[in-house]
Amino acid sequence: MDEYTFKDLSFIPEIKSIAVIGASRKRDFYFLRIYLERFKGRIYCINPIIKKIEDLPYIPVYKSLTDIPDDEPVDFVFITVTRERVIQAIDDCVAKGVKLASVFTSDFADEGTEEGIRLQKELITHIKGDLRIIGPNGMGLYFPKIGIRWRSSLPLVTKGNVGIIAQSGGLCNLIIHGLYANDINVSKAFSIGNAVDVNLLDGLKFLKDDPETKVIVAYIEGLPEGTGKIFIKLVQECQKPVLILKAGKTDVGAKAAISHTASLIGDYSIWASAIKQAGGILLDTLNDIINMVKFLTMIGKKKIDNVCLISLSGGYGVICSDNLVDNGFNLPLLQNDTKTRFDDIFSDVHGSSYNNPIDVAILLYDPKKMGEIISTVMKFEIDKGLIDIIIFEIAPLYLAYQLTTRSKNLTDSIFNELKNIKEQFPNKPIITIIQDIGFNEVNNYLIPKLHSIGIPVYADINPVIRTFKALKNIK
Amino acid sequence: MDEYTFKDLSFIPEIKSIAVIGASRKRDFYFLRIYLERFKGRIYCINPIIKKIEDLPYIPVYKSLTDIPDDEPVDFVFITVTRERVIQAIDDCVAKGVKLASVFTSDFADEGTEEGIRLQKELITHIKGDLRIIGPNGMGLYFPKIGIRWRSSLPLVTKGNVGIIAQSGGLCNLIIHGLYANDINVSKAFSIGNAVDVNLLDGLKFLKDDPETKVIVAYIEGLPEGTGKIFIKLVQECQKPVLILKAGKTDVGAKAAISHTASLIGDYSIWASAIKQAGGILLDTLNDIINMVKFLTMIGKKKIDNVCLISLSGGYGVICSDNLVDNGFNLPLLQNDTKTRFDDIFSDVHGSSYNNPIDVAILLYDPKKMGEIISTVMKFEIDKGLIDIIIFEIAPLYLAYQLTTRSKNLTDSIFNELKNIKEQFPNKPIITIIQDIGFNEVNNYLIPKLHSIGIPVYADINPVIRTFKALKNIK
Q: Are the CB atoms for B382 and B337 separated by under 8 Å?
C-alpha cells in the first residue's frame, strides 16, 4: 500500500455531547462520572433497565441511543457493554449520526478465539457513514482540556503539549501518569486497542496536525497490514519529535504482543532502521519515554556531544564524567577565557578541580558564585558552540535542613540563581541531576520549580545518558 | 608488594569516648552535637579559647587533648582544625594514647600544591604508636549503632548490614542516604579521603571480618602504590559480595579523581578484568550500587538467566519482556503442569496471555488468584530450577483510590498475599516493579512494606536488567 486515506478526526476539539452505553449501577456509573467533573456539554446515560440515576437526576437516561431526541446530536459515545451487544450499539451510533465511538469492550480478536475474531470482522462491517471507532479493547480518548478521559485518576490538566497514541491502555496510563509526575501534561491521548478503524496512522496524523501537541509518543504493537511505508513517511514528514516504543523487538515480546492486541509484528531490525532514517526516536522503556519527553518539552531538539558537568559532590562528578565519556560524550577542557574567570571565582577555594568536570566544592554555600560558574560556561562555552549542554548536579542532602543554619534558604537561593540564568540565557541548555535519595522535602519542593522554568531534573547519570544517546538520531 | 600488614581496626566496636578538636562556636559546635544524640560514652570538646559551651554545660572543654586527666582515656578523636594545626593535634593524639583519629581537615595532597603535599608527608611521620588515622580530607567513621557519624542527616539506625569504604565523602553520603531511602541500613562506613594511614585495604579487611556486615560497597579512586594484587586477593577471599564503583574508567574521570583525592589510577581495563576474576562486582553509577545492594540484602547471591514475568499491565509486560530477552535473559515457556493449573486459574479471564510473560489482566482485582499464580510458578518452575526469579509488576495506579470502591484495600490484600508467599517459599526469589509515576500514597505505603519482607522494589525494567547483568559475575 503506497496510498492511504487518513480518517478525519479534526472534529475532536469540537465534541459537545457524550453518551455512555453500558454505564451500570453495579459499577456506580463510573464511566459516566468521569466526564462530570469538567465536560461542559450534554451527557447521556444509555441503559435499558434504569430510568434515573439517584444522585445524578440531571443526567438523562435513555433505553437506546436512538431514543435521544433528533434535535440533540451526540458527538462522542463510550461503549462498555458486553461484546455481544457492541454491534447493536455501533448500529445505533450510525443511526444517531455519532462522530466518534470508543469501544472499551474487549474479547474480540484480542481474545484469540474464532468467535472473537469473527465478531471483530462483523463489527467492522457495521461502521458506516461518518462514524469513527476507537477500539475495541481500547481505553479510548483522553482529552483533558474538555474533560474526556477513561479513568478518574487521569489528571484533568487544562494545558498539555504531549500527544500519545498507544495500542495498550495500561501502558498509555503509565505514560500519562509518569509524565504528569514529572510536571508534563498531555494534550490528547488515544488508546486504540485492536484498532479496527482509527489506527496508529490516523492517530499519528491527527497529533501531527494538532496545534496543541508539540511532542508525540507512540506505543506500537503492530501496524495495519501493508502500511509500514506510510507510517515511516508520516514520521519523516512530521516536524514534531516522534518517540516510539515498539513491542516485539524480540520473539518473546512479539508473541506476547500478538496475544495482547492481536497485532502482527514485522522484523524489528528492518523496522528500526527505517524509523531511524525517518528521524523517529526509538526508545526501549517507560522511563526512557518520560526522560526523553522531559528533555524535548523543556529543552527542545538538541544533539549532544560536548558536555560541561558541574557537581556539588566531587566524587559523584568523577563517576558521572566516567559514564559520559565511556558512552561517547566529551567533556572538553574549557577555554583560557573561562579558566581565567574561574581562577577568580575559585580563588578562595582549595582542592577543587574546575576544568570540566567542575567540582563546586565549598561554593555550594555561595549560590551567587555558583550562578557565576554556570553563566560563565553559558557565555564563553555554549555561546561559541564548544559546549552543547550543562549538567548541574545538586545533591539534595546539602539543601536539606541541618543542625547548623548555614543551609537555610539555600534551596531558594540556588533556584533563584537558576531562574535568573534561564531568563538571561533562555536558549542555552541546562539540565540538573538531583538524586532520589530520600530528601523528599527538598525534592518535592525544588523539582517542580525547576521543571516550571524549563530545567529538566534527572535522578542519576544513567537516564541522562540514555536520553542523550537517543537524541543522536533526532532530525 | 606481595605482602601487606593490615592495620588493626578491631577496636572500633569498643569505642567508649570521643573528643572533637576544633569544634567551634562559629559552627555552633556542629561536630560535637552530632555525637550527642546516641553516643553513650564520654564526649570532650577541645578548644583553646572557650571554657564552656552554654547549652551543653555537661560537656567538658579542654584547651588540649593532653589536658584530659590520665585516668580518662580517649578512644576516638575527630579533628577539624586548620591544616597547620593538624600535626599538633596528631601529636596530642599519640601522647594521649588515642586509638583512632579522623582528620576532616582538607587541603593536603588533595589541594595539589607543594605545600599541601609537603604537609601530608610530614603528617605521616607523626603517626606513631597504636594511633590509626582516617583522612585527611575524609569524613571519617559512620558507625550509627553507637552514634558515630559526620553529618546530622545521617540516619542513626541501630541495625545495619552494609559496610562502605569510600574515597569520597560526598559519594559516601549519597550511598548511605540512597540505601536508607530504600530501607537498607549501613553497619559501618569509612570515608577515608587521602588515606595516609587507614586505606582501602584496611577498611575492606575490617568489613570482611565485621560480623555485622553482609555486603560491602567500595568507592575507589586509587589504591596505595603496589597494592593492586593484595586488593584483588582480598576481594577473592571475601565471602561477602564486594561491590566496586571505580573512578577513572576514562581519562577524564581519572584526571578528575587525581585532583579530588590525589589518587593514582592504573589502567582501568586491566583492573576491571582482575576484579571480575576475583568475583568482585564492578558497577557504574550510584543507582547501580543501590539497586544491587537491594538485591543482595533482600534476595542474596543469585545468578539470573531464566525469568518469569508477571504483570498487571499487558503492554508494559510486553516491553519488559523485550528488554529482558534483548539483554540476554530468557523467558522460558512454562511447563504443562504449570499451564494446566493456569488454565484453571484463568478460566474466567478472556484475552490474557499466561505463558511467560503472564498478563494478570482482570485478576488484578482478585489477589487470591494472583497469589496462586505466583505460588504456582514457585512450586512448579523455580523449585525445578527452570525459572530463577519472578518479576512481578504492580502498577500503582490500579491500587490508588478510585471513584469506585473496587480498589479499596487491594494494596493490603496484594501485600498479604506476597507476605504469605514469602513465608511459604522464603528462598524462592521474587522482585517487584512498581513504577514511580506519582501515586506516592501507594508507593510510600507499599514499598517499605515489601522491602521489610525481603521483596526488593524497582521503578522500571532497566535497573532490574543492570542488576541482573552485574550479578552474572558473582561468585
A: no
Chain A contact set for B30 (CB, 8 A): 403-404
Question: Cα–Cα distance between A106 and B361 in angstroms, integer?
Answer: 11
For residues A174 and A290, the answer to whether their CB atoms sit within 8 Å is no
Model pLDDT for residues B459-472, shown as the tens digit of each residue: 999 999 999 999 99
Residue B395, C-beta contacts closer than 8 angstroms, at least 6 positions apart: A170, A173, A174, B312, B313, B316, B434, B435
CB contact under 8 A, B168 and A285: no
Spatial CA neighbour of B259 closest among A474, A220, A353: A353
A395-446: pLDDT as tens digits: 999 888 665 445 558 899 999 999 999 999 999 999 999 999 999 999 999 9
Report CB contact under 8 Å: B326, A249: yes
Contact between chains at A285 and B107 (C-beta distance less than 8 A): no
- Tens-place pLDDT, residues A58-74: 999 999 999 999 999 99
Spatial CA neighbour of A137 closest among A168, A98, A163:
A168
ipTM confidence:
0.95
Non-local CB neighbours of A224 within 8 Å, separated by 6+ positions: A195, A199, A200, A201
Cβ distance B351 to A116 less than 8 Å, yes or no, reads: yes
User: Nearest CA to CA, how far is A379 from chain B (Å)?
Assistant: 23
User: Whole-model pTM?
Assistant: 0.95
Distance from CA of A183 to the nearest CA of B (A): 10
Q: Name the grid cell of A280.
A: 523517529
Nearest-neighbour CA in chain A from B139: distance (Å): 13
**pLDDT by residue (tens digit) across A19-30?**
999 988 888 899
By Cβ distance, the residue of B167, B181, B460 closest to A285 is B460
